[in-house]
Design a protein that fits this description.
There is one protein chain. By secondary structure, the protein is α/β, with parallel strands linked by helices. 64% of the residues lie in helices and 9% in strands. It has 35 helices and 12 strands. A hairpin with a 2-residue loop joins strand 10 and strand 11. The longest helix has 54 residues.
Length: 876
């Protein structure tokens, strides 16, 4: 009967672990909608979640020692937690209303904002997490009846609970959020918790009182006492060691998350994979430790060697993968399952070693069976408290101030020194002195060896390995959100990188033209402009050139990105000194929510979600609605849609989501494979004369010549040729897509593995006709007078074919480029050299020979027909 009851108790640990990680994943997402997905906001939620678990472990550990029926209390706690989870969306909505009402009173002080968020988060999250924290102490109180069984059963219960948490992490990140959405995933976890509580309640009636009371015999034989009791000092040291294990575990998670974004895209699969693999290792370590150390002696020394193993294996997890960076990165890009396999290969062993600590620590720290549940609760509380401190210190203090490498070395040193203290505390251990210092000497030798070979120079080694050919590393800064760095090529082009992703580059015209297009076509030049996810701030280059613009607010989540772009991008010269420009470090959604200002133009240039899953929420109806509330009545919302990084269903869904908020939509060519979506509440109206005047302003023309490498928008005729889709055609292309919401954003799971030109082909097949576009001109007579109706109408589709050909890529670009160079290019020599370079780089010999033959004809260098397109420069 006792074995059966132990088996049932162990099985009930699994759903509790599943629910806890599902709750954490879901609640972090839901709180990010209220507070933003900044590192400070997310870390605050995680810290309070862990604090609740620690309080619950400590409190219910003390209470459990006085209970005769601990399972009854556990059943009540699980049912109450499940009911709370069912009501959580409504509780969060009430908190959100309260936060909105109190925000303005605290908006002037970052400290008050953080304190307000912490208070409200604590009021919402602490009640359920405190109840969840009582699971392991109450299980141990019910199931453990002998001191020599304490380590085995404690490891069993905690290990299965941890493995359940791993299942919850994988389920939430890989399946449930995608299929069910965020809200329903939390509701299903709540129902599972209620069902589990009901089963525990039924079991409590069958088992009766706890094992110690039910047997009615004395558990604490004198021999067992002599064998397993430790001195008070050793017990305290073991408890401190277990707290350090929690600190090390979460600190390493933060470092691994930061480190592996250099190898893989920052997808939900990487995030959930790291957390899931670490938890699997901890759970298996708990189970193995309970069996391996069941009757072992010299427990403190064994715990010391475990700490030594943790330090060494953590160090190796960062070192051994560096020489194979390129192969690992390529394999992960081709198959998501390869990412998980790689994470298992590197992270399982250090996580397993961390998991061995709990059975040993609980054995060392527990003097009598009556104190088993109380000490287990204290140990869980200390471990969770260490985890909370590790999360906050690593993110906010260690990495930003001393960097990844020194943070890693600090963690390794702490574990090695704790191992020394534990081994030396074992008074009867033979050869105690050399047993404590020899591992340290070996670890120091290992660290020196890998340091001399530059394999642990984080992140420098990886950055140098990732440098494109012919580029040099200019500047590196490690901040809260990641590692930001600047590279410079031989032709003095600069690029801004965030971890392993190139997020802005000075030689790509699409970054500039996003800002130029709305400023040139708007009936009235926007005076108040908001740039969200501004990154390198290149889209604001054109905005700042218009003297009519009075206010520009640049918002980005990463302080280091903005600082590096201002310091090194030549195009941003004078940006910091412009009195019209201000910079805000904040999440885009949080800024829209907390600031009541209205803007004539909102620019958004988010990183494609396949590179950062957190940006998926910048393509949802909730985000567009929040932005629409900040638009002036005639305002314009402009967002890049990265067609080259979206599948056809994803493209249609993004466009349909956009059209569900903005009744007037347009798709405009932006360079390469990018377009911009333009949303308004009033019909688009163009003034050809006014646009021509803006294009011909000397400062604008010089900027267009410098920034727009194809020269496509250096004339009004070419500019309006970029108008690809009007509202009816926009909606026609979007037909069949789903509407993305915060609760169900399919782009969270975008991987880039199913990309095809079908989305561009759909746009190509539905291009708006010139007759439809011409209805938007308020001055058609000026348009025909300046450009000639016949010339403009006859060639506009050819120009647009060139733009779409650019989006299609290599298969279509050669004939389209020839047509563009001959009829529309302002600087023909520049465009011919670009095309020749492209064909040479892609080994397209036949087309290259054809180009050389065409260059012998003077027709290639004739000036464009239309006077509004400017004068050709001929041979230079």
């Amino acid at each position: 009967m006792r074995r059966l009851s132990t088996f049932v108790l162990a099985c009930l640990c699994v759903p509790a672990g599943v629910c806890s990680l599902v709750y954490e994943t879901v609640w972090i997402q839901q709180f990010s909608f209220a507070f933003g997905c900044t590192v400070s906001a997310v870390s605050l939620v995680v810290a309070i979640f862990l604090a609740g678990l620690a309080l619950g472990s400590q409190g219910f550990g003390k209470i459990s020692a006085r209970l005769r029926h601990p399972l009854r209390l556990l059943a009540v706690l699980q049912v109450m937690t499940g009911l709370y989870a069912l009501a959580f969306p409504y509780i969060l909505q009430a908190m959100d209303t309260c936060y909105s009402g109190l925000y303005l009173s605290a908006a002037w002080s970052p400290f008050l904002r953080l304190a307000l968020r912490g208070l409200l988060t604590g009021l919402v999250i602490l009640p359920p997490t405190i109840m969840m924290g009582g699971t392991i102490p109450l299980m141990i109180r019910q199931g453990v009846n002998r001191l020599d069984n304490l380590g085995r059963l404690a490891g069993l219960f905690n290990g299965l609970n941890t493995l359940g948490a791993a299942v919850g992490s994988f389920l939430a990140g890989y399946l449930l959020l995608k299929i069910c959405g965020i809200r329903h995933t939390g509701l299903y976890a709540g129902l599972l918790h209620i069902l589990s509580g009901c089963v525990v309640g039924v079991l409590s009636l069958r088992l009766g009182a706890s094992s110690e009371e039910a047997d009615g015999v004395k558990r604490q034989q004198a021999g067992i006492n002599r064998l397993f009791q430790s001195s008070r000092g050793v017990a305290t040291l073991a408890m401190v060691s277990f707290a350090l294990s929690g600190f090390t575990c979460v600190a390493c998670e933060m470092l691994w998350l930061r480190n592996f974004t250099f190898y893989f895209h920052d997808t939900i699969y990487l995030y959930s994979g790291i957390i899931g693999v670490v938890i699997v290792g901890l759970g298996v370590g708990n189970l193995a430790g309970g069996l391996l150390f069941r009757r072992a002696t010299w427990l403190a020394a064994r715990l010391g060697f475990v700490q030594w193993a943790v330090g060494i294996t953590v160090c190796l997890s960062f070192v051994v993968s560096v020489p194979w960076w390129q192969e690992i990165s390529r394999a992960g890009a081709e198959d998501v399952s390869q990412v998980v396999m790689f994470l298992f290969a590197l992270l399982f062993v250090p996580s397993f070693c961390m998991g061995l600590a709990f059975p040993l620590a609980v054995r060392i720290a527990t003097p009598t069976i009556q104190m088993a549940s109380c000490r287990a609760g204290q140990l869980c509380a200390l471990n969770t408290l260490g985890s909370m401190i590790g999360s906050l210190l690593t993110v906010f203090l260690l990495i930003p101030n001393i960097g990844m490498e020194k943070t890693l070395l600090l963690l390794v040193a702490l574990n090695l020194m704790m191992g020394v203290l534990l081994i030396r505390a074992e008074k009867k251990l033979p050869f105690r002195a050399w047993a404590s210092w020899l591992p340290v000497a070996a670890a120091i030798a290992l660290l020196c060896g890998v340091r001399l070979s530059a394999h642990i120079a984080l992140p420098g080694t990886l950055l140098r390995a990732m440098l494109p050919e012919g580029c040099e590393l200019v500047d590196v800064r490690e901040g809260l959100t990641g590692t930001s760095w600047i590279t410079r090529s031989e032709n003095t082009h600069y690029a801004l990188w965030s971890d392993g992703l190139e997020i802005s580059k000075t030689w790509h015209e699409s970054f500039y033209e996003q800002g130029f297009i709305p400023m040139l076509i708007a009936p009235r030049i926007p005076e108040r402009v908001l740039s969200l996810a501004s990154g390198g701030a290149l889209s604001t280059t054109g905005v700042r050139l218009f003297r009519e613009m009075r206010e520009l607010v640049c918002v980005d989540i990463c302080r280091e990105n903005m600082a590096l772009a201002r310091a090194h991008f030549p195009q941003n010269a004078g940006l910091s000194d412009d009195p019209r420009v201000s910079f805000v470090v904040d999440d885009a959604r949080s800024y829209l929510r907390s600031h009541a200002s209205s803007y004539d133009l909102i620019l958004v240039e988010a990183t494609p979600p396949m590179y950062s899953f957190r940006n998926a929420f910048l393509f949802t109806r909730d985000f567009y609605a929040a932005a629409a509330r900040r638009l002036a009545s005639a305002g314009m919302f402009v967002q890049v849609i990265p067609l080259g990084h979206l599948s056809d269903p994803e493209t249609r869904s993004v466009m349909r989501t956009f059209a569900s908020v903005f009744p007037r939509c347009a798709l405009w060519f932006n360079g390469g494979m990018d377009c911009v979506m333009i949303g308004q509440f009033k019909p688009l109206v163009f003034n050809f004369r006014e646009t021509t005047e803006r294009v011909n302003r000397p400062e604008i023309r010089r900027a267009l010549e410098a920034c727009s490498h194809t020269g496509q928008y250096m004339a009004a005729g070419n500019l309006f040729s970029g108008f690809l889709l009007d509202t009816p055609e926009f909606e026609q292309v979007a037909a069949g897509g789903e509407i993305y919401t915060d609760d169900r954003s399919g782009l969270m799971f975008s991987t880039g593995l199913n990309l095809a030109p079908a989305n561009i082909r759909r746009i190509h097949e539905n291009l708006s006709s010139w007759d439809e576009i011409s209805r938007h001109f308020a001055d058609p007579e000026d348009m025909t007078a300046n450009d000639g109706a016949l010339s403009f109408g006859a060639h506009i589709n050819e120009r647009r074919q060139f733009f779409v050909a650019n989006m299609y890529g290599p298969a279509y670009i050669y004939p389209a480029m020839l047509n563009f160079i001959q009829h529309y290019a302002l600087n023909k020599v520049l465009e011919i050299n670009k095309l020749r370079t492209y064909l040479t780089a892609h080994h397209r010999t036949a087309e290259l020979e054809d180009l050389y033959q065409r260059l012998k004809s003077p027709e290639m260098f004739q000036t464009p027909d239309s006077p509004a397109q400017g004068k050709g420069r001929g041979r230079e």
